[in-house]
Amino acid sequence: MKYSYTARTKEGELKKGTIEAPTREDAEKSLLEQDLIVVFIGKYKKRAVNVGAVPFIGGVSSMNKIFFTRHLTALIGAGISLTEALEVLSGETKSSSFKTVINDVAASIRNGNTLSHAMSRHPKVFDRLYVHVVGIGEQSGTLEENLEYIVTQLEKARDLKQKLIAAMIYPAIIFFLAVFIAAGLIVFILPRLLPVFASFDVELPLTTKVLIGISSFFENYGFIAVGAFVGALILIRVLAIVPSVNFILARMALVVPIFGPIVRNLNLAFLSRTMETLIRSGVSMSEALEITSDSLGNAAYRRKLHSFMGPIKEGRGLGTEFEAEESFFPTTFSRMVSVGERSGGLEKSFNYLAVFYEKEVDNLTNNLSNILQPVLLVVVGFVVGFIAIAIVTPIYKFTESIGR
Asked: What pTM did the predictor assign?
């Protein structure tokens, strides 16, 4: 197997290359026999030239950020300078857009800027929380430890997202399968039965009339209906950019059955973890609130945290502000924060709350399929039963009239 490596010679010179070996351990052993100190080693990946490729717009994937941060931590710990470490990571990344960002960060550092300042030039890749924790690490001489902490938080956020997606796969398959079957019956099967129903000399039941009406509508206006539905989704997506509309949608997300508690606990977990990180790093309370509010995904929570900044600057307690907004912050949450403020252990309180709400989200996502399964079965059963009754009832009435 082929491996790519970065190593130092005895003279301290950085050397990069590839090596053939049965296993990674054998590759490391071979490099050590060549008097090379291994800094990084991984499977060699041939990079195809992507002609005319258009880099994606926005940030980078969470996996790319985790890979970058984890390996930057390891390279710094090995005593490699920032610019050299960034050159190594630029060569290892497969994303052309991320490579451009890393190269720009390295160039900015060569021009005399700090790592945090260089990263702040790319807010779509490195958010304020990331940049701030890096900056504090640079100032306090704990950059390696702070980067390790960032990796931990990125991995937790990724794991939560993956659990949510995994929990939604089965219900989504059942839902779309039911919609597909119902649409097939209404659009393709039922129109062939309409002439048969019309030949019956009986009064059609209400369920059959409703089903015929739905079938006729989709037969005549199906493309318009689908286009209107897609257009409505696009319109909602566009309007969601408007702050007032985004706020309304965020509030609605908090009260949606089943999903509302997940959204609430997810924001409380991220809020707690971010506040714990910033307070541990020595950031002032008002600044920590501002950074945390900008990092939250729900606009309602962002606005609420922003509203606390004024009172906090005036000397009011954070726990008191949380207690006044019980619809956003449960009593347990606000009281734990108040206890932390009084005891001087606010960092520990937020850490406890972060662990608690992360477990709550974990439990809710694990049970999501079990909760949605009976609901979907009832919905699917109702739809199938309605269609079956609408088709069978007129046939039964016709055979009954013949018997008379």
From this structure: 0.66
